[in-house]
Amino acid sequence: MFRMLAIVAGLGLALAGSAEAQTPRKGGTIRMTAPYGSSFTSLDIHTTQRAQDEIYAKALHRSLYIWNSAEGKPVLELAKEDVVSGGGLVHTFKLRDDAYFHNGRKMTADDIIWSFNRIMDGTKAYPGARYVRIIEGAAAVEKGQAKEISGLKKIDDFTLEMKLTEKVDPGFYFFTALTSIYPADEGAKESFIQHPIGLGPFKFVEHVPGSRIVLERWDRFYKPGKPYADKLIVSIMGEAAARDVAFRNKEIDTSVLGPAQYVAYQADPNLKGTLVEVAEVFTRYMGMNPAFKPFADKRVRQAINYAIDTDLIINKLVKGKAYRATSWLPLTSPAYDKAMKSYPYDPARAKQLLTEAGYPSGFEFEWTTSQNESWGLPIVSAVIPMLDKVGIKVKVKQVETAVLAEVVRTGDYQAFIYSQQSGPDPLAALKCFHSSTPQPACNYMNFKNADFDKILDEAGQTDDAAKRNQLLQKANALLYEEAPVWFFNYNKAVMAVQPWLHGVQKNPTELTHQNAEELWVDETSPAK
Amino acid sequence: MPMLSFLIRRLLQTIPTVLAVVLLVFVLFSVVPGSIASTMSDDVDPQVELRLKQQLGLNDPVYVRFGKYIARLATGDFGTSFRTREPVTSMIAKRAWPTLQLIFTSMAFAVLVGVPLGFIAALRPGGFVDSAAMFVAVSGLSIAKFWLGLVLMYLFALKLGWLPSFGYGDGSLKYLLLPAVTLGVSPMALLARTTRAAVLEIMTADFVRTARSKGMSETRVVKWHVMRNALVIILTTMGLQFGALMGQAVVVEKLFSWPGIGSLLVDSVLQRDIPAVQGSILIVVLAFLAINLLIDVLYGVIDPRIRYA
To answer: Which of A226, A229, A225, A196 is CA-nearest to residue A213?
Structure first.
């Protein structure tokens, strides 16, 4: 009996201990890193589309929606309810009445209307215009034909009506920091750019250009008990080797890893447990220009997919820091079809397809590439002998990443290798292959296929989510068959996270973009 | 008076140099492909790109843009950054102090270590100290800064735990030491070699022999004759090294996340932020010219035989 009691008591204590370990601790400092360059672009998040800037913006600002990594979709953030009417085009948002800006003023519908009108100011070219343009009348503001977006109507302080031009899920359009809500009055002031005011869980303290941004807890944040930490520091660390030393030295809490470090961390028993991995919504591929005669033939494009030993490249060159691509939509896409298989490595089949297409001796093409280690010159160099084996010769044209982006949009290439966003909205991702999408927008291969258009149009019209997914899967499978690209891989984002940092979300839209209010550090953190 | 006319003459000589740099940078960035729009994202909206180019005047002919730029520059306006949309002068001002801190600390390290090392080596040529000093000098000149920085980080931050591995912190010495030493090793090595060569040459000069034959002690010979004469050569090397340091600071600032003009320049080039690139380069050139002018003036102070007429 006594023994039984001891066991029960022991179990109770163990469970209590475990529950306590999982209870978020209040206080402490979170030290994140911004790995994509030597600076932040701007403290006016409406002006910048770089992933680097959204790292701090996720803590400082809030948008109408927010990305929920657990659910894998955007969810309402500044609104409590969205009532859809008007054939799916009119959304009536019941806004939060407990969201306060960092100057203590309550957010109202006026702030949202003001922010969206600001983003559509055509003389300023704010990148978020691409999203806000979905609201009726927004394009007219951008062109200077109207002063205010006609599709936005304030019903009362906390009710906003939004009329869209297309039947889409507005969550995918209004969850990034590009559409952050600013306080209408302060946002217009010159001083705003030096001392931004947002609705996020942390308020601005200091920006040392080229070094760091320091934020502290906003006590009037609308989610009870959150954020947990007192302070959040985002340090700019563009050099992977320097991040590695700082992470091992416990000076930072998070570090994004490249392929070489990924291997090293996996091999180190002390660091292996720190890795957080997610399939990001980026597809890496070789785009083929149909205006270049051999690539106009589907069989040639398929032959290239068969001729390349993609698994070998992913394992040996990319060090396993990628997921093999089956078609365009990535693993984390809601419309990803698990049953789909990727093109197998089959040089004999490739040779046969080339012969059928009228290229028994192969041909030569120019391949434009950047120096990127994961989707640039090293990959091209590995592919060259594989293509040579089936008679295809490659002439490499190396350019800077900024130049590659321009080459891709202007269509001034025979082939190029690139990494392109392929989510989170599968419909928007596949629309890049719709014949109505201009090449500079994102239809970089100038893909035109009537069957594909039809499937996609149908998917856009249907209200049935399951049917829409089915249609999107069908469109994705058609892309596989048409092979406008060599389907290389989906990016596996890897971040090392110190054991004392908890609440990290596996965000497939960009792993470094964390909803900071969910993060907390336990008492073992060395940061004060 | 000769000094004043010298200064005016030298200042006037800098004008064509500055204009040539301005023209060169402008032309280079006008022909280099890629624009701020293409660096914003992998899927920038074409309509936004078009408006951005219009707003920034990137669709204007090159000569129109150059004319506008020169007109603004003449009033001291470096333009507005394409990226941050704030005045370039304000961006540079925020970055200038960290860069000055880094460069002057590096130079102080180089002088305090390199010059005595060169002197000691020259006083006992061929001996152990000379060989060791020259080994350090040659190594210092050959080591890649990136690698050296990582080794120092590993040793002093990770293994010994004495210093932080990165960042600006509060700008104090503990944050400054590692980047400054990394940057200062190469000029230290060059100064050691130059000092050694200069001292060795001066030690065999007629006036040194005369001083010794007059019964002057070796300490006085070194202090009054050798050191003063060597200083002119050391100063020249320092002047040239200031320019080199500004260039090399780019790598060190990026490695240590040091918020100086170097890292601003790198990001601005990569993102085709032309006004920020032009402004940063112009400031570096002006600083280089100013330091060289100062060194020219110091020549006359150290060696009165040097005239400014």
So the answer is: A196
Give me the numbers of helices (H) and strands (E) for chain B, helices first please: 13, 0
Q: Are residues B264 and A406, on separate chains, in Cβ contact within 8 Å? A: no
Q: Decide: helix, strand or coil at residue B75.
A: coil
CB contact under 8 A, A208 and B257: no
Chain A residue numbers touching B258 (CB-CB < 8 A):
210-211
Phi, psi angle pair for A503, to nearest 5°: 85, 15
- As a whole number of angstroms, the distance between CA A206 and CA A216 comes to 10
Q: State whether B167 and A403 contact (CB < 8 Å).
A: no
A421 → closest Cβ in B40, B42, B164:
B42
Note the pLDDT tens digit of each residue in B198-253. 999 998 889 888 988 988 888 888 888 888 888 888 888 888 888 889 888 989 99
Chain B residues with CB under 8 Å of A53 CB are none
Sign, CA torsion A369/A370/A375/A380: positive
Q: pTM of the prediction? A: 0.89
Task: State the best of B31, B35, B42 to mutate against chain A, taking most chain A CBs within 10 Å.
Answer: B42
Please give the ipTM for the structure prediction: 0.85
Q: Using the 8-state DSSP alphabet, how is residue A345 labeled?
A: -
Diameter over CA atoms, chain B = 85
**Closest to A473 in 3D by CA, of A361, A279, A333, A273:** A333
- Distance between CA atoms of residues A322 and A375, nearest Å: 11
How far is it, in rounded angstroms, from Cα B190 to Cα B212? 29
